[in-house]
Amino acid sequence: MKITDEILAKIKEYETIIIHRHKRPDPDALGSQGGLAEIIKTTFPEKRVLLAGGPVEGLDFLNTMDEVTTTDYQGALVIVTDTANSARISGDDYDKGAAWIKIDHHPNDEPYGDLTYVDTAASSCSEIIARFYFAYPDELKISDNGARLLYAGIVGDTGRFLYPATSPTTLKVAGKLAEFNFNRAELNRQLDQVSYKVAKLFGYVFENLQMDELGAGQVFLTQEVMEKYNVVDSETSAVVSLPGKIDSILAWAIFVAQPEGFYRVRLRSKGPVINEIAKRHAGGGHPLASGANAKNLAECAVIYQEIQEAVASFRQELA
């Protein structure tokens, strides 16, 4: 039996299904979570489907969460989307259900759950969920809003179809979703627009980007900078891709100071593999897009040195 057959059988089996995603959600986390919920609710309207997790941090135009209590998990099926490690699952009691399933596209470093469906070749978890829907045309249904959510997740995780993970299959799936009745232009504007204060932070990032001669870059967003621009950690996600617009840069880190004293590290690359760096520093992710944590400035310096070494090795291989 295929893994998708097993997942569909589990969905049919349970009357209450609770869907989780990762902390600090991005469009793919909310898109895959909400899109799967819409598939289940539209196909099986008699089932109780709940979305679990904390605040959606400025993405409430995509979805909002339900109030989920500990008792809701009794006899329930739990599905976690777009979350590589159990420590990153948003919401409590995710392991208190009768069964649980992991659906993801990150490297499967922690294969949690009773069923694990991971496809690292997929552009996004939303693409996986959409392919799951299209694989069962005689059994599954989806609402226009479900298609909107899955489309948003694919657009978000592919950088509007610019990132290398965008495959011909990705484009075909997105094209099929686009046939549903939702306003793609409005959705794209919502995904792309930023507040005026974050737009001003863009200028700070470009002005303060440090880059070596090989194309390794870094930017520090200190607590003082965050206060000056009146932004919080979740809003800094909008600046992560900015250094990549510079033609000579290959890989970079954005170090975001946290009130507790450590640094959240956002890593991106145009070629050098960086997820191994992230794994060495309490993080993980994709080869070209990862996240990590640094206890202090000394560890930040180590991470940047490792980025420089990865860039140097990448250029040597190209040569």
Short descriptors:
inorganic pyrophosphatase (n-terminal core); 2 domains; six-stranded mixed beta sheet; single chain; five-stranded parallel beta sheet; Diaminopimelate Epimerase, Chain A, domain 1; 10 helices; 319 residues; alpha/beta
Summarize the structure.
This protein is α/β, with parallel strands linked by helices and 319 residues long. The protein is 37% helix and 17% strand.
By DSSP (H or I, 4+ residues per run), the number of helices equals 10
Oligomer: single chain
Q: Give the strand order of the largest sheet, numbering strands 1, 2, ... along the chain.
A: 6-7-8-9-11-10
Radius of gyration: 20 Å
- The percentage helix is 25-40%
- In CATH, what is the class of the largest domain? Alpha Beta
* pLDDT < 50 stretches: none
Overall structural domain count: 2
Strand proportion: 15-25%
> Rough shape?
globular
N-to-C SSE string, H for helix and E for strand:
HEHEEEEHHHHHEEHEEHEEH
Q: CATH H-level name of the largest domain... which superfamily?
A: inorganic pyrophosphatase (n-terminal core)
